[in-house]
Amino acid sequence: MEIPKIVITGGPCAGKSTSMSYLLEKLSNFGFKVFVVPEAATILINSGFDPRVFKDESDRLRIQEAIFNIQLRFEEQWADTAGKLANCLDQQKPVLICDRGIMDIKAYLPPRCVGYFETLTQQERTNVSELMESYRGVIHLVTTANGAEEFYNLNNPARKESPEEARALDISTQNCWVGHSHLKVIDNSTDFENKMRRALAAVCRFLDIPVPIEIERKFLISKLNTEAHFGLVSCVKKIEIEQSYLQSPANEEVRIRKRTYEGSSSFLLTTKRKTNNPMIRLETEKIISHYDYLALSKKIDLNKHPLRKDRYCFLHENQYFELDFFKSPGYLQPLILLEIELTEENDKIEIPDWIKVEKEVTNDPQYSNFNLASNPFSISYR
């Protein structure tokens, strides 16, 4: 049984501990049995293994390796135990809420230790892409040092950062998760109570409460010089995507997708159903093995072309954007589409100034991936 796993992460003093309690109560009311995976770093720090007090870099790296291994074991053991208990939960649905996730460790590694995290994943016979996509969704709570400075404090014994350090660490932690399929940043633009409600709304979407709804906006973009323009963004992750559509009923879109990041791949099976609102679709998605991906590849709809695109993921004003450059089929070049996934239909969108929007195409069916795979068309710019 696949147990959905959701990460609650963020900068120092972001409200993570409170949100964990809040989510546990609310999800229990929705019929879920919540299993909380503790944060390995806090346990080690409070046990005396604080990397900040060790001067030798090799010693600090040993502690980070220990955090990596313990966090991974925690998540594996919690998932295994929750799965074994699933039949004893009196119809409650099990879910894992992780107090931070495995990718957070990258934010605490020295900048010159490039590739160290990847080495740790290889030792576990996995890769960054598989680890990242093992989570159903990621909630990043922005530190109160950014936008709610009067509430920033050092009440947590493991917290020693100044507000300036907290803001820098917050950004570094966000950047660790850029590239994930479902990342939601919850800022301090509202009071704390509504911050918790926004986090809950995002988690509900990850868990298909009440139904799995996908709300997104899509825009046609003019040509971009990626090297010049992405230099204006603090962190950009490139994901190579290959997707094919399977034979399915007329009211459904069923696809398989291969996501490759830095040479490692993960595989997804997605089903989408239309609603009366073009912005909203019912969506279910699950991780599949490479073997299942290859098996399903034999059932593709031969009337539709496989799509290949380079996806650039980045954050702007605490909003998570995905910019797609289509590579094939050839008739789609030089198509560029910008997408943003929303929690609510009326969420405000702030598109970066360096991106020139030709027009919004959210309600234009010819720009859906499903139709792009079958209907050649010429792209006209103003």
How would you describe this protein?
There is one protein chain. The chain is α+β, with helices and mostly antiparallel strands and 382 residues long. It folds into 2 domains: 202 residues, 3-Layer(aba) Sandwich (Rossmann fold), CATH 3.40.50; 157 residues, Hypothetical Protein Pfu-838710-001. It has an 8-stranded antiparallel β-barrel with strand order 6-10-9-8-7-11-12-13. A 5-stranded parallel sheet has the order 2-3-1-4-5, with helices on both faces. Helix 1 packs across helix 7.
Task: Indicate the topology.
Layout: E1 5-10, H1 16-29, E2 32-37, H2 40-46, H3 57-85, E3 93-99, H4 116-123, H5 128-133, E4 137-141, H6 163-177, E5 183-186, H7 192-206, E6 213-221, H8 226-229, E7 236-245, E8 252-261, E9 264-274, E10 280-288, H9 290-296, E11 307-316, E12 319-328, E13 336-342, E14 357-360, H10 369-372
Parallel strand pairs: 1-3, 1-4, 2-3, 4-5
Antiparallel strand pairs: 6-10, 6-13, 6-14, 7-8, 7-11, 8-9, 9-10, 11-12, 12-13
